[in-house]
Amino acid sequence: MDSRQLRYFIAVYEQRNLSRAADQANVAQSALSHHIANLEAEFATPLFERKPRGMEPTAAGERLYEHARIILRAMAAAEREIKEGGSEIAGDISIGMANSGMKAIGVPLMRTVLTKYPNLKLSLTESLSGATLLHLLSSEVDLALVYNPPSEKDLVAEPVLEEQMFCVGTEKLIGKKAPIAFEEVTRLPLILLRYGLSARALLDDPVLLKRLEANAIMHLNSTSGMIGALTAGLGCTIATTHFVSEPLKARLLVAREVVEPKLTRTLYLCRLRNRPMTYVMEEMCRLIRALIADQVGRGAWEATLLI
């Protein structure tokens, strides 16, 4: 298996047709068919089902496609790194962000890349923290901003900031802006993120998180659904003021500081240990840290810097 075979395989996978794939790859259809057959012989399994109207990937073909994209992308990055020696920040970079991260630094990041790095192609993915982590672990993104990732030997996780968590809901439901004890919070109608990796984003302390989850009346996997439920008075949640800044300003919601104990969560900048750091990744890490520090320093992001 070599890079040329992988490129030909990707062409067939994406076009689902040998003739169109041959045109895309600028190679004879017979040669393309020969390379695909050699790949299948090497793996001892069919990669496509030959049908009258085209080529349909098998399960093995689906898996190879994901690996092939990662392999070719890494090879291109390696070639660029060696040839340019970091003299120019160029190529592709994919960054995943939890919703709060995108809300805080998404636009400044895009603006900086467009103005300062014209030869860099940026891909941004926004999702709940748990989904963002899965994107990183499956190599769909190169860097990720996530909350409280699990301890993984393949994961390099750098803490960047700590946020205080509040009890958020309508004033009618949770009362006015005075501090509220954690025990009292557990007796309120809580709406929380769904169980699993996404739920880890809520709190640093897993014991306290389990207590909250045990008393929740509903679990959601949607930020817009969460905001809608809160403003409709269906329940309350544990969140940062940054997450609900707009409804707080509009006085649709109130945020009460949770005490006894205080609740916090930590944001991490993560990458895979088995993927070597590139010049582009280093530069983007520096940029992300600088943008986070700027947002916190200006008071736009209420948090404590850990970098």
Automatic annotation (TrEMBL):
Keyword annotations: Activator, DNA-binding, Transcription, Transcription regulation
**Where do the HTH lysR-type domain residues begin and end?**
1-58
Keyword Repeat listed? The answer is no
| An individual GO BP term | regulation of DNA-templated transcription initiation
What start and end residues bound the annotated signal peptide? Answer: none
Q: Which residues form a coiled coil?
A: none
- A single MF term (Gene Ontology): DNA-binding transcription factor activity
InterPro entries the record matches? LysR_HTH_N (IPR000847), LysR_subst-bd (IPR005119), WH-like_DNA-bd_sf (IPR036388), WH_DNA-bd_sf (IPR036390)
Record's function text: NodD regulates the expression of the nodABCFE genes which encode other nodulation proteins. NodD is also a negative regulator of its own expression. Binds flavonoids as inducers.
Family as reported in the entry's similarity comment: Belongs to the LysR transcriptional regulatory family.
Name under which the protein is recorded: LysR family nitrogen assimilation transcriptional regulator
What is the species of this protein? Answer: Bradyrhizobium macuxiense
